């Protein structure tokens, strides 16, 4: 038996509008982990071959700064490289420290950011970007770094260390605009 349903034009427009709204909201979600369908800031990084979503980190930190009357930050490739090297060094040594590998001051001195403000947050044991951000936000020195008025760029990385009790080591480096030396 064929069933025909007639929809009034106003109802059809409402349904079409609702469908478009749902599609628009779903499109805004962005930053989702392809494998899990959840936002990337909840992605578990305590596993091999997973990286931090730098765009999600930038959005999260920029939003936090905006809520505190500060300008946004943007991803910087040099800072991303520096953060990655630091996170890997900490994971390889199973130690959380600013001076593992090369001391922080030396790393900055040998970078394009030698003449500007540079701050670093390191941590270990947080498995998601959301956890790391919350930990930094709730720690006065780390919060001060994220809310530093002189920074406008960032690099962030997490390194997985399967044999460590921490599993994930984090490095967030924030800096002002690099000036030619």
What string gives the helices and strands in order? HHEHHEHHEE
Structural class, from helix and strand content?
A: alpha+beta
User: How many DSSP helices?
Assistant: 6
Query: What is the C-alpha radius of gyration, as a whole number of Å?
Result: 21 Å
Shape annotation: globular
- Strand percentage lies at 5-15%
Helix content: 40-55%
Q: Give a count of the beta strands, DSSP E runs of length 2 or more.
A: 4
Poorly predicted residue ranges: 1-33
Commentary on this structure:
The protein is α+β, with helices and mostly antiparallel strands and 181 residues long. Helix content is 41%, strand content 14%. It is built from 6 helices and 4 strands. It has helices spanning 9-29, 54-67, 77-93, 104-109, 129-137, 140-146, and strands spanning 74-75, 118-124, 153-160, 168-175. Strands 1-3-4-2 form a 4-stranded mixed sheet, sandwiched between helices. Strand 3 (153-160) and strand 4 form a beta hairpin. The longest helix has 21 residues, at 9-29. The relative contact order is 0.18.
